[in-house]
Amino acid sequence: MSSERVPVELSKGVNSFEKIILREIRGSSAEVYLHGGHVTSWKNENGEELLFVSSKALFKPQKAIRGGIPICFPQFSNHGPLEQHGFARNRIWSIDTDPPAFPTNSSSKAHIDLILRPSEEDIKIWPHSYEFRLRVALGPGGDLMLISRIRNTNTDGKPFTFTFAYHTYFSVSDISEVRVEGLETLDYLDNLQNKERFTEQGDAITFETEVDKIYLSTPTKIAILDHEKKRTFVIRKDGLPDAVVWNPWDKKAKAIVDFGDDEYKHMLCVEAAAIEKPITLKPGEEWRGRQELSAVASSYCSGQLDPQRVLQGS
Ligand SMILES: O=P(O)(O)OC[C@H]1O[C@H](O)[C@H](O)[C@@H](O)[C@@H]1O
């Protein structure tokens, strides 16, 4: 039987970790590991990989995969007492066979619903009960959608508070040929300067050194223009006001064990996030955070593209 047309397939990935492969009829695909609820691959109709995963990525228990889309929950980075980026990215998620309905029905057959609930060990680290439902869906045009629904299921009447990010690693041809549009003139916290607050200048963002910034209250659309590849990624987000931009550059790259020395040239993290204003849920309350990624061919030459058209077009 040809597996080509099966929209959702359960398979074994690296180190026999279980993964789900999503296939859209026109040829695009995505892969999601139960380890971390982690998207590790997103390919367009021509089979080109759109996400970066390090050649040194470790697929090990209790360790996050370097690349793809790690989920940072219940804490972004070191903004709190928990381990860096929280624990959701290195826990084993389950397939959610009977997820509550979505208000708008996704027309895509190629989707998977995952769920994470705390283990007894997790409750010792973060003393709360929750259900974290994640839907990963491939749209008909190959768009990749992630929807998170987090519900407080505490029975002790206590609210909980968290920060969150989809830590997406985009694959780019050459970081020095890339620009990000949609974050100009915004305020940001600079992680390289004690999270101090600054205001971005008016120009699109380009890269010539290490960057680790949390842009605050951003527009719902951000574009990453890859000049050399003639490709533009568009990120659309909902419920996620902030956006982190990260590239470790050469020095930090060498210090990251599961990252190649030169790989910083071929990746850029733009992370839809809720950080500055943490989310608080009372028992029974649910939060949603959605990210939709699309990759479109762009015939960009310097000065030719009107950024407003990229950002305002549908
Ligand atoms: O190495 P990790 O724990 O995956 O974190 C990688 C990076 O994630 C985010 O982008 C943070 O803003 C950075 O400060 C951090 O270095």
TrEMBL record:
<dbReference type="InterPro" id="IPR008183">
    <property type="entry name" value="Aldose_1/G6P_1-epimerase"/>
</dbReference>
<dbReference type="GO" id="GO:0047938">
    <property type="term" value="F:glucose-6-phosphate 1-epimerase activity"/>
</dbReference>
<feature type="active site">
    <location>
        <position position="167"/>
    </location>
</feature>
<feature type="binding site">
    <location>
        <position position="84"/>
    </location>
    <ligand>
        <name>substrate</name>
    </ligand>
</feature>
<feature type="active site">
    <location>
        <position position="271"/>
    </location>
</feature>
<dbReference type="Pfam" id="PF01263">
    <property type="entry name" value="Aldose_epim"/>
</dbReference>
<dbReference type="InterPro" id="IPR014718">
    <property type="entry name" value="GH-type_carb-bd"/>
</dbReference>
<dbReference type="GO" id="GO:0030246">
    <property type="term" value="F:carbohydrate binding"/>
</dbReference>
<comment type="similarity">
    <text>Belongs to the glucose-6-phosphate 1-epimerase family.</text>
</comment>
<feature type="binding site">
    <location>
        <position position="66"/>
    </location>
    <ligand>
        <name>substrate</name>
    </ligand>
</feature>
<dbReference type="GO" id="GO:0005737">
    <property type="term" value="C:cytoplasm"/>
</dbReference>
<keyword id="KW-0413">Isomerase</keyword>
<feature type="binding site">
    <location>
        <position position="89"/>
    </location>
    <ligand>
        <name>substrate</name>
    </ligand>
</feature>
<dbReference type="InterPro" id="IPR011013">
    <property type="entry name" value="Gal_mutarotase_sf_dom"/>
</dbReference>
<dbReference type="GO" id="GO:0005975">
    <property type="term" value="P:carbohydrate metabolic process"/>
</dbReference>
<dbReference type="InterPro" id="IPR025532">
    <property type="entry name" value="G6P_1-epimerase"/>
</dbReference>
<protein>
    <recommendedName>
        <fullName>glucose-6-phosphate 1-epimerase</fullName>
        <ecNumber>5.1.3.15</ecNumber>
    </recommendedName>
</protein>
